[in-house]
Amino acid sequence: MTSPARRHFERVSAAQAAADAGDAPMQGEAYELMQAALFEDYRRLKSTQSMEKKAEIKREILPNYAEYVAGVLEAGQGAQDDVLLRIMLWRIDAGDLGGAIAIARYALKHSLTPPDQFERGTAAIIAEEVADQALKQMDDEGTDSLALLAHLVEVEHLTASADMHDQIRAKLHKALGYALRVANQLDEAHASLTRALELNDRIGVKKDLERLERELKQNAAKPTG
């Protein structure tokens, strides 16, 4: 386990490197050390076939990057940082949506671009990957549904003005609609699922929309007072 003094040093070093870089690409010893660690961890993940096992490995290794991320977010001026964006994606895969969104705020604010192997832009990656993870978490009994809803609302807000394929935005609205439904916000859920269907008529929400519309009609017919 890393000592508190070591963690403090890693955070301060990352913050200094991020501040020194300004809006130029990240460089310096702190960044190079993280790049080297990332390369080794990436090789380990690449040799693992099971997606479930990959997620377990990511949960195991992500704390090793926590101080670096904290330092960059604290003092960064918008330097292009492939390590930071990779960690954002790994946090999503590991189920840490809150941690991923903390990076997403910074990445979108400063228009950071994803590593070369990704064909989608940063906003599209965040929208689609968070939506996929949220839909997966909805099936888990221990999920904090209100926290999940808050994450989806923030991602929708963060990416609302970004250009992306309609299918990706549809998936985000689908996840948001389901989360709103769980929270019993039926009108808002109906609006989100309707929007998902408008963007992609094969998104798979038609039956859920029909059920939701019946429920809304039933609620409207109930006597008040």
From TrEMBL:
InterPro entries (alphabetical): Phage_P2_GpM
Pfam hit, one: Phage_term_smal
Name this protein carries in UniProt: Terminase
Taxonomic placement: Bacteria, Pseudomonadati, Pseudomonadota, Gammaproteobacteria, Oceanospirillales
